[in-house]
Amino acid sequence: MFSDPAFVTCPAAFQDPVFREPTPDEVRLVARQVGETPPVLVAFEADAGGPTLASGLVAAGQLDIVQGTVFRYSRENLGTR
């Protein structure tokens, strides 16, 4: 889970991301957009349903690894099961 996101660019829907270190150009792009190099900068390639892989880039203040499904909509009554 990304905390304090500063910059996100990625397809609306994708699967099977393969994470990689951001390129120097990606680091410069984000630094220009947010005014500094953020503590967390993650790049990835993923299947977005097109003929080639789509790229994604996320800059944030912190990254916490949490296993589970990510929902893109509001859910009510979330209790432990």
Describe this structure in words.
With 81 residues, this protein is mostly beta strands. It has one domain (2-63). Helix content is 14%, strand content 40%. It has one helix at residues 24-34, and strands spanning 2-9, 15-20, 40-47, 54-63. The chain has a four-stranded antiparallel β-sheet with strand order 1-4-3-2, covered by helices on one side. The longest helix is centred in the middle third of the chain and has 11 residues, at 24-34. The protein is globular.
Question: Which key features would you list for this structure?
Answer:
mainly beta, single chain, 14% helix, 81 residues, 1 helix, 40% strand, four-stranded antiparallel beta sheet
Offer a concise description of the structure.
The chain is mainly beta and 81 residues long. Helix content is 14%, strand content 40%. It has one domain (2-63).
Write the layout of secondary structure elements.
Layout: E1 2-9, E2 15-20, H1 24-34, E3 40-47, E4 54-63
Antiparallel strand pairs: 1-4, 2-3, 3-4
Termini separation comes to 21 Å
Class inferred from helices and paired strands: mainly beta
Radius of gyration: 14 Å
Portion in beta strands? 35-45%
Oligomer class: single chain
Task: Kindly report the average pLDDT value.
Answer: 89
Structurally, the number of domains stands at: 1
The arrangement of helices and strands along the chain is EEHEE
Low-confidence stretches: none
Profile the largest sheet. Answer: 4 strands, antiparallel
The number of distinct helices, counting runs of at least 4 residues, comes to 1
Measured as a percent range, the helix fraction is 10-25%
Number of strands: 4
The strand line-up of the biggest sheet is 1-4-3-2
Shape: globular
